[in-house]
Amino acid sequence: MISYIVYFAIILLLPIYAQMKVKRTYKKYSKVRSTSGMTGAQVARTILDANGLQEVRIVESSGYLSDHYNPMTKIIALSSHNYHEASVAGSAIAAHEVGHAIQHKESYSFLTLRHKLVPVANISSNASWVFIMIGMLASFSNLLLIGIVLLAAGVVFQIVTLPVEFNASNRAMNQMVSLGVIRNEEERHAKKVLNAAALTYVAAAAVAVLELVRLVLIYSGMTSRD
User: Fold this and answer.
1) Is residue 161, in this structure, part of any structural domain at all?
2) Model's pTM, two decimal places?
């Protein structure tokens, strides 16, 4: 009983901690003006042009931290504050999204794999819990196994996302430093923003793996009783 309480506490609190961490770090460094005086949109444009990505457009998006890169339309969407303001946090996030655009241009292997997994992960993750719930409630191990296999596809997607995000952050730091977007102490601040953002992906992957392991153990217990 205690082990279950600890388990559910971990899978509930870890994502909450990660979200709080990224929001707190972003809030802090979004108030620190970058010495370059460049807005997030200008940072993104500078890095894109330096890497021969003039065709990639930058637009303003609604929502809090809604920044993303769409490889289908070749558009980088930056949330309003990051788009208009000249802050260390905005520069880091804008550069991170450009990092994805550079990955796309170079056909970065993990990004290519993640794109291929998107439709599979969307379908399997939603369908998996139908089989899992029926399998567990009816003690039907074969249905539970199907659910576990489907869920595993979503877990693979979460794991593949990690190198994609870390690589984009590394590219972002290299580009910002080499192009003079950030200087001296700003490098450390930008890394904190990017590391906090990466923590959300680590937390999601960890929770997904833990849940998969739990279900595999339940399945093993069911089959051993058959």
Assistant:
1) yes
2) 0.90
CB 92 within 8 Å of CB 176: yes
| Per-residue pLDDT tens over the stretch 80-128 | 999 999 999 999 999 999 999 999 999 999 999 999 999 999 888 889 9
Query: Catalytic: which of 55, 60, 85, 97?
Result: 97
Query: For the chain, what is the domain count?
Result: 1
Q: How far is 181 from 37, CA to CA, in rounded Å?
A: 9
User: Is 97 one of the catalytic residues?
Assistant: yes
Residues 147-168: tens digit of each pLDDT:
999 999 999 999 999 999 999 9
Rg (CA), the chain: 20
Range of the domain at 24: 2-33+88-95+107-225
The count of residues in the chain is 226
